[in-house]
User: Which sequence fits this backbone?
């Protein structure tokens, strides 16, 4: 069999989709890697360090990003989403929608001149809206493909309806490579695929509706993902731990577990990774500033990964992290915007309070936005929480033969597990193709 002729589509360019693509590309399959954002990388690109080794996240990810980009068998389709799919006797026909980038991918050299000149500022979603970027932007510093994109909604030229009068266009004027192309439009196209791997990951639960925690009401209550960007040297505060109310460096931090997890009113399941990532946050806080005292408020600690329990012991013994078994009833603030946590001590059942300077909420991992719509398009079943349904004996199979799934779209999981089942999904896709397509 000539494997080179066989094609696999991987939907989602996070660490799971990247790993599946690399495995399949190395096996000789032609891979179309579909990513809705301007660059691949997913959540891992936003992380500062990875637990339990505290290795730099982007240092592990970056070589895989460039391997993917350079791989002769992998084509990255950025700013692209699946619109329609039809099952054929042999494989699938997939209709895709590619959003206009307004920058010619073959001409842009990522020199950044356009960004300097662009006058339009926008809240940066990669930085969890704690920073601003320009209307023309590189999704993140190490992003791949390393090509600018223009935000249609915020670009002064593209928003201008009066075609008689040219507004802005500074990026076009300054670009010496003629890379700006305002004539680009969103385009539909189809690709044939012999198998599909779904790797659309997960989102972070928005804790705003849980009023008792005061997220969005109090500036010094932020989420775990916001904290990841804050402690990252390339993030909005260049790695300085900074209260949003007064830019002071806090000396006491409380981490609140199970925000939107293990609660029948929100998501009844455990998000599996947060006990350990809050431990990581507490360790890294102390490494940033040895005066910082961290307390982790938990219901019970779930550290179900290789080396995770030892990591928690290290946090206690070497970094002085306090673990308090207590359920937070409410967070209030004092006149200096210091959060005060009111909680029930689950060991003594006493109601207690603790004043700190900063609070980090460990929010649930929830299915990716619109994953239900995508599942409908693909015809795959979801579980009761809207993660991809799989079974114990075939964890990467979906109900549709030829469509496999991996990573956090299967349910909350860490990077090593995502990589394991990404390789599993690639192997299963290969086996499926060689069994059915001769
Ligand atoms: C605060 C925080 C800290 C963490 N810390 C750690 C840690 O230290 N160590 C660790 O092991 N794990 C950690 N994790 C978990 C880790 O982020 C996940 O395990 C990992 O990102 C899962 O990878 P993934 O590829 O499955 O999903 P993702 O990283 O979510 O990637 C999914 C990709 O699919 C794309 N996508 C989504 N929908 C579509 C669509 N319809 N079409 C096309 N593309 C789409 C997305 O844009 C994204 O690029 C942490 C998580 C959080 C929230
Ligand atoms: S669009 Fe032009 S100016 Fe902007 S980074 Fe690319 S090559 Fe440089
Ligand atoms: S046209 Fe103006 S606003 Fe639009 S991206 Fe270029 S410089 Fe920015």
Assistant:
């Amino acid at each position: 069999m000539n494997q080179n002729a066989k094609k696999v589509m991987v939907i989602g360019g996070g660490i799971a989709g990247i790993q599946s693509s690399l495995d399949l590309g190395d096996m000789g399959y032609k891979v179309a890697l579909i990513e809705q954002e301007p660059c691949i990388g997913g959540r891992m690109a936003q992380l500062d360090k990875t637990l339990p080794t505290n290795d730099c996240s982007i240092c592990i990810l970056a070589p895989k990003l460039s391997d993917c980009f350079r791989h002769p068998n992998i084509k990255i389709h950025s700013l692209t989403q699946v619109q329609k799919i039809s099952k054929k006797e042999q494989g699938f026909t997939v209709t895709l929608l590619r959003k206009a980038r307004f920058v010619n991918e073959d001409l842009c050299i990522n020199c950044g001149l356009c960004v300097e000149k662009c006058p339009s500022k926008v809240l940066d979603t990669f930085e969890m809206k704690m920073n601003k970027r320009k209307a023309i932007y590189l999704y993140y510093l190490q992003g791949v493909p390393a090509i600018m994109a223009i935000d249609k909604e915020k670009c002064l030229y593209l928003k201008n309806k009066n075609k008689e009068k040219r507004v802005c266009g500074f990026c076009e004027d300054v670009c010496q490579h003629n890379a700006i192309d305002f004539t680009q439009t969103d385009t539909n196209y189809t690709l044939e695929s012999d198998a599909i791997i779904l790797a659309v990951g997960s989102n972070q639960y928005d804790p705003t509706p849980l009023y008792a925690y005061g997220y969005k009401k109090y500036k010094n209550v932020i989420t775990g993902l916001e904290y990841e960007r804050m402690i990252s040297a390339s993030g909005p505060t260049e790695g300085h731990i900074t209260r949003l109310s007064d830019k002071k460096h806090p000396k006491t931090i409380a981490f609140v577990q199970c925000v939107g997890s293990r609660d029948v009113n929100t998501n009844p399941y455990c998000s599996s990774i947060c006990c350990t990532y809050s431990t990581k946050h507490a360790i890294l806080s102390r490494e940033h500033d040895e005066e910082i005292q961290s307390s982790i408020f938990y219901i019970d600690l779930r550290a179900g990964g290789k080396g995770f329990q030892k990591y928690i012991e290290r946090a206690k013994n070497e970094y002085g992290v306090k673990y308090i078994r207590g359920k937070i009833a409410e967070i209030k603030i004092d006149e200096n915007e210091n959060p005060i946590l009111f909680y029930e001590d689950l060991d003594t059942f006493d109601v207690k309070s603790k004043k700190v300077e900063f609070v980090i909420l460990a929010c649930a991992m929830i299915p990716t936005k619109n994953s239900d719509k995508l599942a409908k398009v693909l015809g795959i079943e979801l579980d009761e929480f809207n993660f991809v349904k799989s079974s114990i004996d075939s964890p990467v199979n979906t109900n549709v033969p030829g469509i496999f799934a991996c990573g956090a779209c299967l349910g909350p999981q860490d990077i090593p597990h995502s990589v394991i089942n990404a390789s599993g999904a690639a192997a299963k896709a290969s086996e499926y193709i060689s069994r059915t397509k001769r």
Q: What stands out?
A: The first strand starts at residue 7 and ends at 11. DSSP finds ten helices and 23 strands in the chain.
